[in-house]
Protein: Cysteine--tRNA ligase
Organism: Pseudooceanicola pacificus
Amino acid sequence: MTQIRLTNSKTRTKEDFAPIDPGNVRMYVCGPTVYDRAHLGNARPVVVFDVLYRLLRHAYGPEAVTYVRNFTDVDDRINETAQKRKAAGAAGTLEELIAERSGETIRWYHEDMDALGALRPSSEPRATGYIAQMIAMIEGLIAAGHAYAAEGHVLFAVESYAAYGALSGRSVEDMIAGARVEVAPYKRNPMDFVLWKPSDDSLPGWDSPWGRGRPGWHIECSAMAHDLLGDSFDIHGGGNDLMFPHHENEIAQSRCAHPQAEFARVWLHNEMLQVEGKKMSKSLGNFFTVRDLLEQGVPGEVIRFVFLGTHYRKPMDWTAKKAEEAEAALRSWRRLLADAEPMGADERVVAAVADDLNTAQALTLLHGMAKEIAANPQKDCFYEKGVMLGSARLLGLLTPELAGWEVTGVADLSPLEAALAAARDEAMVSKDFARVDAMKSALVAAGVEVRMSKAGVELIPGPGFDAAKLEGIG
Ligand SMILES: Nc1ncnc2c1ncn2[C@@H]1O[C@H](COP(=O)(O)OP(=O)(O)OP(=O)(O)O)[C@@H](O)[C@H]1O
Ligand SMILES: [Zn+2]
């Protein structure tokens, strides 16, 4: 079987992956806070962990992998939109308007991530569905001396957990020195973080032993992961912007609530999508949404390909040039493999993906396979094409779900291929190539790549393809 190796943020080394139970490999990934459309940065972990999910399913069997990705639907930014709508006269209670905002954002998220070819996780819990489990976990932490109630809040006492800071490699003293933490009067230590906070009448709230209130963000993931995956599970993922404080706090809560268990064995963090050296983020305002790109006509498969071109542990930018190259490669691959039946993925491609998700290497291998198939048109490449298609699908590329964009608006070029081939045959006899040359330049002007070999003529629409300019050629 394929030996998967992953860089574990906890140990800072690349390790052989060995699941607790190969019959049920379990992965939790922090999902979006559903207050607005996802920006392109938010899509990076979705694509990265989708590739890992596909790899795990390949290695252990599709039934043997459980992938949980949550929706954080308790958030002041969701409340704000609902309050604004209410103030503007929208019908319904505040609770209903909050549910409406989360609901529409989840629908958008699904539409946008489906468009990138991301498989839906096995389970997508919403935080609001797990309030009872969060309260139970907080009660357990208080009983064990790891948390305390003060002024309607419950706080986690970081000093009660000796390993606090181990994931991000900081000591509590360093954190206090370096962070601008809110020093609330009810905190025993400035780094203590909120497990529960009070809600006034204008905010959603749930009854609890500490009065009407709502959970802090970190406890949500601990409670959902525990309920759906158990005390100990295999992989926990998310962007590296979440390592501190979110993941540090998840570890503290979960390890203290279930001291006999490990919580997550392997922690995997994707690097950031950047804009001019800075993290793309809502707060910096330097973002565009996945929907913006799709509406500009960038196919979801192209966005996916661009993400796969950079290793997940490296920062990356989105550029028009990368998108163009991705589009050209995908167009020619889809054309090359139009008649192929998928077979098992090439072992070298599997090995690349299994080596800490080296998707860039996998794409290089696919380029090589495409070149070889194209260079042997007289050879029956049935097998090679099938293997290439199977390999691309391990990466979630060239799937039937993502098909179609490469032909929309694109004319059938085969009559032109025949016409150009016939013109060339005539020219070979007459030695007058003027017509062939004229056809070729007209095709190039229309954004078509012209490939002529002894075996025949191939016309491939490139990124700047314009079907309107084909008129009159041939
Ligand atoms: N620029 C980025 N590049 C890669 N991943 C990102 C980026 N920004 C956010 N993420 C990831 O997106 C996921 C969803 O995050 P979340 O919903 O908390 O983000 P957000 O609050 O909408 O984004 P922001 O960080 O812009 O405020 C997390 O795994 C997070 O690490
Ligand atoms: Zn989380």
